[in-house]
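Next comes a single protein record:
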Amino acid sequence: MEFDQDTARAIEALRRECGLGMSEAVNELIRRGLVAKPAHRPFRQRTAPLGVSVDVSSVADALEVLDGAAIR
């Protein structure tokens, strides 16, 4: 089996560090990848003051206030 250079280095490092065979090291790295959580920033909604009070109970009325009557 052939691995990319970065993957082969990770396998070799784990083999040396833990005294594992090739299959054991590959399986361990796969297991670690399965439980790893991706590093991401939490979603944050950005808002800006519009300077207008909008009653959103009627979408058409809200659009008219925000965009003007000519848009309709």
Notes: The radius of gyration is 28 Å. Helices lie at 5-18, 22-35, 59-67. Residues 5-35 form one domain. Residues 28 and 36 are 12 Å apart (CA to CA).
